[in-house]
Amino acid sequence: NFEFEFGNFKDFDDVGYVTTTENNDIIFGRRDRTTVVNSLEANYNFNSQMALTLRGRHYWSKVIYNGFDLLNSDGTLGKTAYFNTEDNDFSFNAFTVDMIYRCRFAPGSDIFVVWKNSVFGGDNLADINYFKNTKSLFDNPQSNSLSLKVIYYLDYLDVVKTKS
Questions:
Q1: For 54-87, what is each residue's pLDDT tens digit?
Q2: Distance CA 67, CA 81 (A)
Q3: Choice between 99 and 155, residue whose per-residue pLDDT is larger
Q4: Which end of the chain is more exposed for a tag (fewer CB within 10 A), N or C?
Q5: Residue 41: its pLDDT value, please?
């Protein structure tokens, strides 16, 4: 089976922490945030004991600041002279691929072979569109891992014979 999911989320005037200045002022920002998530999953069962799952996911979020506020000692937000949007606007990417092979060799006992690939990237290019952003994502280093997991069901009553 195949499953594709798409999500496009927009938050306007979201408030969040930005930075702490040299004189220990805490700065919050009002920002517009856009998040796009695409995921694709494919499952194939060879038979009742063997299956293969492949998952791919791309997450992209960009934040553009509209203004800044000072966190007052009473917890309210007040005016500030801080203004540095070029250093604070950002874009973050995460692209992951997981492939899982499962083999059931006895009741309740499985062997899993798992391969994971991931690419993460972030920059201050929040003004580019989704497709230009995705193209530049693969200029970042990739991380790969391969793991083997064996789960064996051990019945306690078979191991320890009770006396009658």
A1: 999 999 988 888 889 999 888 889 888 887 756 7
A2: 10
A3: 99
A4: C
A5: 97
Tokens for 50? 């063997």
Q: What is the pLDDT of residues 123-148, one digit of tens each?
A: 776 666 677 777 777 778 889 999 99
Write out the two tokens for 124: 């201050």
Three-class DSSP category at 72: coil
With b for 16 or more beta-carbon neighbours within 10 A and e for fewer, the 92-126 pattern comes to bbbbbbbbbbbeeeeeeebeeeeeeebbebeeeeb
User: In one letter, which amino acid is 3?
Assistant: E
Of the candidates 84, 53, 54, 57, the one whose C-alpha atom is nearest the C-alpha of residue 68 is: 84
User: Which is more confident, 65 or 114?
Assistant: 114
- Is residue 52 within 8 Å of residue 99, measured between CB atoms? yes
> Which whole-number Å values give the CA distances from 102 to 19, 45, 153, 163, in the listed order?
46, 9, 15, 38
Q: Half-sphere exposure of 74 toward its Cβ, with a 13 Å CA cutoff?
A: 3
CA–CA separation, 95 vs 60, rounded Å? Answer: 9
